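Q: What does the assembly look like in three dimensions?
Context provided by user:
Components: two
Sequences:
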Amino acid sequence: MKPRIGVYICHCGLNIANSVDVASAREFAQTLDHVVSARNYTYMCSDPGQSLITQDIRELGLTHVVVASCSPRMHELTFRATVQKAGLNPYCFEMANIREQCSWVHSDRVLATQKAKELIASAVAKVGLLVPLEERQVAVTQAALVVGGGVAGMQAALDIADAGFQVHLVEKDSQLGGRVSQLYSTFPTMERTADLLAPMLQRIHAHANIHVHTDSRVEKLDGFVGNFTATVHQYLDRAAQVSELSVGAVVVATGAATFDPIEKPELGFGTYPNVISSLQFEQLINPEGPTGGRLVVEGKEPQEIVFIQCVGSRDKTTGNLYCSRVCCMVAAKQAHLARERLPDAKITTLYADVRTFGKGHEEFYDRVRKERVRYRRGYVSEVYRQADKLMVRFEDTLIQQPVELTADLVVLEIGLTPRPETNEIANTMGLPRSGDGFLLEIHPKLRPVETAVDGVFVAGTCQGPKDIVDTLAQARAAASSALAPLCRGQVKVESATAYVNDELCAGCGICVATCPYGAPALNPRTGRAKVNAVLCKGCGSCQAACPSKAIRVMQFTSRQVLEQIAVLA
Amino acid sequence: MIDTQALVEQFGLNACIQCGKCTGGCPVSRKTDLNPRLLVYQMLRGEEFELTAREELWDCTTCYTCGLRCPKGVKAVDLIVGLRGQWIESGKIPTTLRGPLTATLNQGNPLVLAREDRTLWADGLDLKPMANGIGTLLFTCCENAYDPRVQPMPRALVNLLRAAGVDFGTLGLDEQCCGSEVRRIGESGLFEYLRDDNIEKFKAAGVQNIVTTSPHCYNVYKHEYGATEYQVEHYTQTLARLISAGKLKFTKKVEATVTYQDPCFLGKQNGIYEEPRSILKAMPGVKFIDMDRSRERSMCCEGGGGRMWLEGTNNKVRLANDRIQQALETGANMLATACPFCFLTLSDAVIATGHENDIKVMDILQIANQAL
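A: Here is the predicted structure of the complete assembly.
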């Protein structure tokens, strides 16, 4: 039976239509072999766009569909569902990427249109050769792994455990609590962190579904969504105790590091004992800290305190171009605490911008100023000593004058940075990082907790700087995303997998060595390779490596690919 | 009327967030109207800008602190030099600069002295002319070549290099100004002439390595000549290297408590903080103590950016005088430096503040030569 192909060309508003003549592309598509319908539309992914496709499938009896639009990463799943809805096999579908690979990168309309036509012709040549594939499901291991025992990890673990699933909570330190346990109180409510953490810890330790692994690290993660195997090393004495955990989903909540202000030598950190970081201030103000909560530096109560914002953040010289999102409010909170302890001290906060975007934050900033905390606009250029005082030099940009401010305590509001071991974490899990060094979500708005690895989710400051409020919200989002496969009990696995032609296979084992997922194995009885379709991701490495052309990937067979290329030549 | 928009583009000023870190860090902003942040803002606003009414543009020492501190990569100092360039182009060259600039073109030095007198400092030293096969060129700053107060420094360097068995030559009367200060004054045409001419001379003499007496020559050869044929070292790097290789040894005791002025062109601009200190610490008898403001927080002597020939708008306050005070506070009786400009400004400041009996300014070369 000859294929009956429909071609649907998307304008993507003006994203494609601006540099590609879509009407001319449609006329061209109409002339291609086996094409019975070709249409163009402003947004093919919209409901009316999708109905053009389903209507044609039903009315014209299409057997295969090509959508020429954006990258398959964006909408392949959308359109597979569309054709399935109209009764076609979702694998009898092909996308031609005329946006990312054409309209967005070319400005010459004539040439861009020509390229779009060739990409469409190429997709049409391939699509007719595609065969229906069966959708496959595998059972899910109904347990989760949460990496990192800070507030994000603890909250995610609790949510998953409360839904009735087993959770392994792996923490590298000997105790849970993470960064929050180093803080004294939280903005803007001034709630003590101890009051926040205690009930969480209590519930975690009492929870029958949560297994806490402290002093432990995930050294390896194998498998795929629904069926991961995590190799966890627990470092109690010198030798690591190794355990293998089977889980269906993973939440990564490994947190962030804090900026080391020694990298800003002009600020005198490490030189003067009364220049401290905001993290050190938290210990200083804590009644359970070394001074019993008395605000004393070098044995004296400071009378002139200066808080310096944006230390290490928004700064090309440190390579941290981003705003750390918490420091403005930490500074406000710490100024408030300082005022509480020292009613007569002169307290100044030096800033370039004050960013108080969270719920109740601006109101807190208003309150702190009423408490006689002076905000002066200017980044600090230098801290040095004059007699027994520190001198903080900056330009008060509002009066346009360089100023020397005396101080006996300087607090540096340090930003958040990716943990130094982020690379190891990313490599272990197979996760990409964004330009700022943090772990990368798939889409900042649409898929904020999902990663490039199906079944692995991110939460908290390992994904980017954020406060406790946002961290917990993201943790609960990650937990609920991780729960989806666990609750369903089954996950779809890739149908376009590799298979071996027994008659051609010589049993050389090159595919076994090549496959990154361990899918092919040599059958000891027949001496030939066999692919475990559950492990296969359809990446095609084996097909490229096989010297006797015995191994093939469905939807990417040599014939299909060569036809696709032939049209371009 | 200047084209502010063109300057905004040329110097990437749109990146500025007006945080003031440049002005706060500017060493002369404490004494004059120079405000790098405000200059950038005036360019961004595109307001009418009367160049010649802005005398304070000549106060900048091009120490580069503004550019190094900026969190957004803006180099206000480059804008200032650019504005000076437009001023120079208009022909209204500040009086005290006319002689030095003309002499640099005609005589190869800004001290307004004769080209044929350039090698007088080396009388009796019997220096080899630079030629192929000699690895290293000793390059003398114009100040060191002509000013008797700083002529002992290159003589000391000759002695030290010979003691370490280093084969080197000089350009003799072919040596001329490196153009670093000329460029910072804004005379870019003259700078380009000097650069091209010097590169030709280096090539002709087969120069592969250069050792400079001044951080200013070092900086311009390293970063602003765009040449790849040679390697350049400031002498503090050379000596530190020779000491750690065991080729240079100090035997005589230097009984002094020594502190050190980081030249901006060596420290802040090139991160060379350790080498000068390691040389001083290698001398027997030296008790080394840093000033509170040192290394990245060091303070400019006001000798750079053409200020050797310009008083600036406020000569009542001199940073070098403050610097002497800061050096005295350490308890040091010797203030070492590694730059002829620093040496001259600080030596003047010792006299101006009446501390001749309390502290002595020395170039590391002089001290090292004594310790040999």
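Follow-up: Chain A touches chain B through 27 residues (CB under 8 Å).
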